[in-house]
């Protein structure tokens, strides 16, 4: 099972407070993002909290994203989004329906609209990045 499948399974059994904690813990697992990369160019527009996403390309061509947020829950959300695409080839990322992969988490009903309003923008940024890097 993939880490995403494990997360879905765990998430389904948790109460609301524990779901928040799971998201916060996911955010803590993100690779550290240097402050120098937290610029206007890496800022995801439309999020209630500040969210930065910076793509890097691994030696074999796969994309690895660095991300951070100034809000713990939002950092967990971007970590969850990245879990669907992290360390994959750009062409692979473009075939994924990221929003559909996130549906089991029912984020719209679990979190406030302020917390989830930026998710489509996060997904769009990832797809635009993959489009730029595809071969």
From TrEMBL:
Xref: SUPFAM superfamilies: SufE/NifU (SSF82649)
Superkingdom of the source species: Bacteria
Pfam families linked: SufE
Record-annotated membrane-spanning stretches: none
Domain annotation Fe-S metabolism associated: ranges: 12-128
Homology family: Belongs to the SufE family.
Annotated protein name in UniProt: SufE family protein
Organism: Parasphingorhabdus halotolerans
């Amino acid at each position: 099972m993939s880490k995403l499948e494990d997360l879905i399974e765990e998430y389904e059994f948790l109460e609301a407070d524990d779901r928040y904690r799971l998201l916060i813990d996911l955010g803590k697992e993100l690779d550290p993002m240097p402050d120098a990369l937290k610029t206007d160019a890496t800022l995801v527009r439309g999020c209630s909290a500040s969210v930065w996403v910076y793509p890097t390309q691994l030696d074999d061509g796969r994309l690895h994203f660095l991300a951070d947020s100034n809000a713990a829950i939002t950092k967990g959300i971007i970590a969850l989004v990245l879990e669907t695409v992290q360390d994959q080839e750009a062409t692979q990322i473009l075939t994924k329906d990221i929003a559909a992969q996130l549906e089991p988490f029912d984020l719209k009903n679990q979190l406030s609209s302020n917390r989830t309003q930026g998710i489509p923008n996060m997904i769009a940024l990832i797809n635009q990045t993959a489009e730029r890097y595809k071969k």
